[in-house]
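Please fill in the sequence for the structure shown.

STRUCTURE ENCODING:
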């Protein structure tokens, strides 16, 4: 029966999609938690609370113009001298930085004195999947406004994918 093959085919697709969802689950982190991106917070200590994966998003909240976010090379991160080694610049006050690659990311605030004062940290984005060692569930710190929306957006998309699978499975059973 052709129907049986189609059914098995969709069952396999379903399994693949579910495994992709569990791997692609991205977390949103507000840098500094409730302190946001500002002077007077130990960002290295903040970053060490979590295990970051490729696809996760760092949100930097601050008053535009008072701070900024520079992604740096490791050497420049160490020296806080941003005359060289700048990889990317963000300055909107609500910067969403997606960790797109499996690598070490280095961030500083480039306003004079702020980096030396502690507005700097590094994170390692790990590739999930393969022989995936599951990372401990992070506890994202909710902030009013935009962050909530992103978290909802991710789960809405996942629910959408699940529904597509259920409908596809239903169609395959009918065939
Ligand atoms: C930063 O680095 C540049 C070039 O490497 C150097 O000319 C400059 O003096 C440095 N600035 C500080 C404040 O050390
Ligand atoms: Cu700053």
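FILLED IN BY: designer on duty
SEQUENCE:
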């Amino acid at each position: 029966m052709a129907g049986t093959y189609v059914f098995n085919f969709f069952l396999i697709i379903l399994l693949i999609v579910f495994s992709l969802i569990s791997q692609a689950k991205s977390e949103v982190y507000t840098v500094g938690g409730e302190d946001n991106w500002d002077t007077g917070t130990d960002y290295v200590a903040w970053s060490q609370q979590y295990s970051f994966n490729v696809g996760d998003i760092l949100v930097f909240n601050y008053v535009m113009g008072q701070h900024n976010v520079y992604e740096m090379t490791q050497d420049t991160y160490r020296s806080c001298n941003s005359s060289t080694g700048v990889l990317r610049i963000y300055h909107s006050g609500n910067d969403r930085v997606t960790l797109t690659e499996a690598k070490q990311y280095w961030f500083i605030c480039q306003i004079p004195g702020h980096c030396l004062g502690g507005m700097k940290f590094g994170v390692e984005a790990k590739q999930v999947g393969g022989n995936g060692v599951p990372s401990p569930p992070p506890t994202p710190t909710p902030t009013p406004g935009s962050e909530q929306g992103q978290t909802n957006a991710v789960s809405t998309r996942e629910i959408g994918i699940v529904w597509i699978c259920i409908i596809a499975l239903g169609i395959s059973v009918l065939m």
